[in-house]
């Protein structure tokens, strides 16, 4: 198992190092050199894109924590109305492809969008104050993308928090805001700070928002600087690989601090064995203020983007949202998508590679998770190997797998095979988290009893362990399937003409100005993913009930 993992996760590192530390100058052959790094440090690209990345990630983290954190506290710790709306907003937002969400905000805050149109019509004619192609615009959209995840992760923290201290503060005369600032936030500090670093890291790795919103405004971050080098003719793989190595080093340092914070979480535990009851804080008249905040979150995170997508999909071309335009509404964009075999080919490729990758990943990590939980010696090595690719941003991993596809003597470059390999390497850590958690729930004595009864190792894994961890494996399969179905970065670098997927097609359509086609395709695809997710949940739920009898 260790050898197989090494074959999967180490070649990308080797290819990046080999390309980053070698030169292919004409007349000199291939030689080991630091020229690629010298070019990076002599230019100003690293400094300017690095500063932009840090500013972008910082602002994104603030927006995501503000929207998601406040919503989580209101829903889990108070008696505000409209709580189900927060969960509906989160679930639908998480299933929406990033490209589609970005396209919606490009329209909403664009020159012809409703915000600027309203300002020109009623406040100051001829002036368009909203410009999304800026660092604040990038951070706003990226923050909206991450706020549903922040809500889900912080909800569990606030849900399990002991309410006694907050109630004691209120009884001592503290206001609601003082109780939040002095009690709730300090107790949740490990979760909030670790989540802040996590969002910061993922924002540094972000590609969709920077390439679709930042690059048209001449704002480069670290990932788009790498993309520009790959988009040259011929691509500058040496420079891109060296830049990727520096980005990996930076992210590794951030992940180290993230791990340290996560290890200290038990110091802030507030649940004890003494009559713990999760109670809600009574806000009185302020509960309706909290309800308004939930409605505002629903408006900004879900309703406005959905309305924008729907409007773009049923209009012949992009135009402001006005009553006079209602007479021109049409379903031609949707019928064009449904009648074009090309889109069915894209859907087939996407579903095939996502399903196969999710299946192989969960099967492989099932054995890895079992080894990690049961083996004292090899388990640690397996866990570390499956976690290596966490430091690879999607674009960087794409650069590495691209070079693997060009180097091996098999015709896999530009096919679904190389795309599947990239997805498998990328999602190993996610599958491992689900599988390892599932195996930990199975007590070792069950396996020992089966072994004493004469069961072989294969029979024990097949008849005892696997059925008991099916719920975790099913959840991991669905999570990876949905991620792979909307992934854009890896396919953008690895897919060929016959292996295109839906996310890349939406990216190309958006770059070509076909926002109506993007909206129509995106809405249909999001609906299909929702149906698949619900169907898979129902089937896995029945399987779990048949296994556990409840």
Automatic annotation (TrEMBL):
Q: Which UniProt keywords apply?
A: Cell inner membrane, Cell membrane, Membrane, Signal, Transmembrane, Transmembrane helix, Transport
Which Gene Ontology cellular component terms are annotated? plasma membrane
Instruction: Give the signal peptide, or none.
Output: 1-17
Localization recorded for this chain is: Cell inner membrane; Cell membrane
Q: Which PROSITE patterns match?
A: ABC_TM1 (PS50928)
Q: Which Pfam families match?
A: BPD_transp_1 (PF00528)
Q: Which domain of life is it from?
A: Bacteria
Q: SUPFAM superfamilies attached here?
A: MetI-like
Q: Where is the ABC transmembrane type-1 domain?
A: 50-258, 347-533
**Transmembrane domains' residue ranges:** 51-73, 85-108, 143-162, 183-201, 237-258, 288-314, 351-373, 385-404, 410-428, 464-484, 516-539
Provide one Gene Ontology biological process annotation.
transmembrane transport
Q: Which InterPro entries match?
A: MetI-like, MetI-like_sf
Record membrane topology: Multi-pass membrane protein
The Swiss-Prot or TrEMBL record describes its family as follows: Belongs to the binding-protein-dependent transport system permease family.
The protein depicted here goes by the name ABC transporter permease subunit
